[in-house]
Queue: 4 jobs
Job 1
Amino acid sequence: MPRDLVIPPKSLDEILDWLHPDRDHAGEIYVQLRHDLTKIFTWNRCADPDGLTDEVFDRVSRKVHGVRLTFEGDPKLYFYGVARNLVKESPKRAKRQVSLEDTDLRAPEASTQDEVAHMREECLNRCLQDLDPEKKELILSYYAKDKQAKIDYRSEMARELGITVETLRVRIHRLRGTIETCIERCLDRMGQKR
């Protein structure tokens, strides 16, 4: 599902502040809300529950600055309202989607793919170097292991930090967003240099 990437940079912070003043508790609410929204889309037999959940957060992100000042009651109800609208839009979206089976898509040339991959890796390394050592260690540790070892290690990380695994996920999500923004800016700069 295509997503609109023009989202105010501080919107996640505003959403978390709106959900609860305590950041850790807000993170737990955020994770539970994502889970609940995905279930709503699944129950309504929508094609891409995770993508639609992302779309709910994208839409709320674009409006949270104004909405949180005037909305009364539990903020989760606003998210559920946006989800309800997306459920109604879902059949219309399905009609507009085209099957890729009948489309002749040519992959970019190998050298172009290699060049893009090299540029992304270079930008990732630059962005990681720009992080505080503590944050760099956190993100590298979070993605260090695979399969069951990954799950166990992440639980251990959360215990060492004195937080829940859900709160750790929210921290990583925010940190990853910062890194992705940094990579996009870096790629833009590299594109201008060529």
Note: Residues 95-100 have pLDDT under 50 and may be disordered.
Job 2
Amino acid sequence: MSGHNKWSSIKHKKAAVDAKKGQIFSRFGKEITLAAKQGGKDILMNPRLRSAVAAAKAANMPNDNIDRAIKKGCGELQGAAIEEILYEGYAPGGVGILVACLTDNRNRTASNVRNVFEKNNGRLASTGAVARQFHRKAHFLVSGPGLTEDKLLELLLDAGADVEDVNMLDGEAEIIAAHDAFALVAKTLETANIKVAESTITMVPETLVEARDETMARQSTRLIDTLEEDDDVQAVYTNLSIPDEIATRLAAE
């Protein structure tokens, strides 16, 4: 898992730079709109909305934009209907990929995703072929002075949260919990004044596919990076594992 975790960390730091781009506000806006549509505009009673708003504010998205997105979701403002679509496919070497999209134009999104796979040596898969290899989990990245895996585990287990794993990496702690424990974990961290850098429902693979060589790793990461650049793509999940030495070379490119 170490290679996979190191690459995940590199991707997370890259995302912090990308958050300066206006594109990220569009993604947050869609997520907020859908969360409000599905669970209502009360942020205290809607964990998905609360997470989306917190992430948007962390990226300095203006409050007016956030308010408009919530109102669109609740039908208080006009706007195109947003729907969730999950695409499944494979990168070179049999690496599984899930592409989570929020879109107001299904045909445009399907065409864009298909083109990215075809131009980057990948292929789309039938429904369920890849998704069955993943499980929905609550995912948090937190930081703070004196945090350790043992302290976080004790805090969350005492609160009754169904926590599955806690890992420290580069001064941050990654928390994986059952997807229905999302609200409880978020509330527990908030009460303990622990800074949350990222909180989301993610897809965690049962097993990892290790990159055999640098070429396979580069082709797979290029496919993933290109998918993430599409405005309709909210997240890309993969079972790719990259050995530390290869991940370090890729990060230096």
Note: The longest strand covers residues 195-205.
Job 3
Amino acid sequence: MPPHAAITATAATIITATAGLTTFAALSPQSQLFGPILIAPRRPAELALTYDDGPNDLCTERLLEILAAHNVRATFFMIGNFVRQRPAIARSVAAAGHLIGNHTMTHPWLAWQSASRISSELRDCNVALEDTLGQPIRYFRPRHGARRPFILRTAKELGLTAVNWNVMAGDWQSKATSALILNRLQRGIGRNRRTGASSNILLHDGGHLGIGQNRMPTVEATAQLLDLSRSTRTVFLTPEDWLAS
């Protein structure tokens, strides 16, 4: 191979590898390459239920009933625009003692947004939540977990801890039944327990396309998981509990 061709091939390889690493750092839920993001500690009996994209009519309210019946505290990452539209539901979540976090104002892919858009999405959502709830917001989850260093720096400046997950049930998919969601949850929890990790579960009580999205399969799968957990030593916590311990 001629020297110039070898140099070109090497450069192309480096560029490809760098692009792949950058994509992994931005999109892999558990990657720490762009900065620290809370996932879960190494205590396999512990499990955190987290719900994105609410508040949402019926589904969020039904979840509150199920969680109360099992005396379980969960985490709800809320979209600011929906909080403005359904403040009573957001207040009900807070009144029930659940942890509430920032899921941006309008649910964009933050990693591809301008610095000013990123700042406004996080700040505006914080304002919507804090105006509605009368309490500070300390946790944040980006859409699909996508981030870059500026996003994490902005969150830190706002006093927000970024939180992703290590169990994903794909419950936003249109054909996801409660049985399929539960099966995915059990597989993910089992995998984490085999490696000695706690489980931080990503679920959805709403949908970013608008209020009224059907998330009843998620609600049903949650109820089934909690019923099954009665006979185990599972401890349900929140990211806040993990940081405090």
Note: The two ends are 58 Å apart (CA to CA).
Job 4
Amino acid sequence: MNYFTLSETPLIDLKIITRNQKKDNRGYFSRLFCPNELKNIGWHDKVIQINESFTSRQGTIRGLHYQKQPWSEVKIVSCIKGRVFDVAVDLRRNSETYLKWYGLELSSDNAMALFIPEGFAHGFQVLSDDALMIYVHSKPYISEADAGVNPFDKKLAIQWPLTISLVSDRDNTLPFIDLNFNGI
């Protein structure tokens, strides 16, 4: 059985992974990660971390986060409970899609995930109360490499689908892209 269907996005190297669910009268089984099936889209590292985030309030925004070199990471994000509008922003200075963003709904119902390559910032807005996200990372979290871009940056003009109900102080004060921003 092929456990994943892979789809392109308008952003170079950013992919949609749809988990093919094997269903029966008990429910379903689906695979969250398999390096052998994902190496052809750019997963070449070991899994270093698997993280979980829970957000209780609809309309909450988390992000836009990334890690600076040499700790820039590949990650796969999935929503396993609830619904989110997941966003990736290309911050690779030499990319044809530099400073472009792509967003899609991830949910427990649609079994989709986003494959986010190195050089992208990531964030999401919760579309339902009680959303649970799983992140698979190729590099460890390093606090000194932690960085982000303000989710309300007018240069990005992300169209968040809901009225914003909550943003952390940290995310609300992330820097805006300016002339000194060199990308990742």
Note: The helical segments are 35-38, 169-172.
